[in-house]
Amino acid sequence: MEIPLRGDAPILLFDSGLGGLTVLAEVRKILPQAPAIYAADTAGLPYGTKTEAEIAARVAGLLGRMSERYAPRLVCIACNTASTIALGMVRDVLEVPIVGTVPAIKPAAAMTRTGTIGLLGTAATVRQRYVDDLEAEFAAGKRLIRYGAPELVLAAEAKMRGERVEPAIIARAVAGLREQPGGEAIDTVVLACTHFPLLGEELQAALGEQVRLVDGAAGIARRIAHLVDGQAFQRSAPDRAVFTAEPVGHDALVARLARHGLEKVERF
Ligand code: DGL
Q: Can you tell me which residues form the catalytic site (predicted)?
């Protein structure tokens, strides 16, 4: 017999750090009534410089334990690095619906006029076969220039703590795209890491107004809304953020998380 879904069963959004808040913000726009838990594996941050085996083991292990503890109605892996590496494995072991985060190559390919697309991700994401497959399927006949920019992850985390973003870090990421063969023709850039939209203004300024930035957050939120369509929602406790290690800059962060409707902060 199927157990009826509880109205207070949360949507669990998971990332290595604060990048997944860009996905939560889109989820809030279309599902403001949905209880949510935001889970950050701060003990494992950053993922992008780890090996595939390390990332897969962390993500599958943590999501298994988190699913038991929080009984979510749906899990969103709000992290491109974790999704491109561990999505299949997590789907095999968990029974709840899992929504992953896929680099937005398809919409970027539809938008580009020059036929040259840049892709900024973590070092782990840009080398994934998953990205090769997306390129072959959706961007055949276009040029996709990839650059792994792990420094941007830490810059985004620092910005969320209220710290200044080092312009040289942004400049290095932009140069990493522009200085590759054909890079001057890039007119569309895929932000293939959920942390990077947090630096959208800085990246836009450095790339120039003519370049369009594309990320997958709104599409992921629509997918989640589709999967929970018709379900009852009832918030019986404040939404919370859970961290696997004490986050750096705790106090500034608590205020920032409250703006995302995450009123409690706990250790997992
Ligand atoms: N936010 C993550 C992503 O979307 C990864 C950041 C990291 O831990 O390196 O890829």
A: 79, 193
pLDDT at 1: 56
172, HSE (Cβ side, Cα atoms, 13 Å): 11
Å from CA of 140 to ligand 1 middle: 26
* pLDDT on residue 2: 64
Residue 76 a catalytic site member = no
115 and 37 co-located in one domain: no
pLDDT for 29-74, tens place per residue?
Answer: 999 999 999 999 999 999 999 999 999 999 999 999 999 999 999 9
DSSP annotation of 197 reads: G
Residue positions in the annotated binding site for substrate?
15-16, 47-48, 80-81, 194-195
Confirm or reject: Cβ of 160 under 6 Å from ligand 1. no
d(CA 158, CA 232): 37
What global pTM score does this model have? 0.95
Quick one: 159 and 227 in the same domain? Answer: no
For the Cβ of 194 lying below 6 angstroms from any atom of ligand 1, the answer is: yes
The 10s digit of each residue's pLDDT in 144-179 is 999 999 999 999 999 998 899 999 999 999 999 999
Q: Is the CB of 153 under 6 A from ligand 1?
A: yes
Give 55 Cα–ligand 1 centroid separation in angstroms. Answer: 11
Q: Containing domain of residue 245, as a range?
A: 11-100+218-267
- Residue among 119, 31, 17 at smallest CA distance from 78: 17
Tokens of 118: 């840049």
Residues 77 and 93 in one domain: yes
Number of structural domains (the chain) is: 2
Residues 130 and 262 in one domain: no
DSSP annotation of 261: T
Establish if 44 belongs to a structural domain. Answer: yes
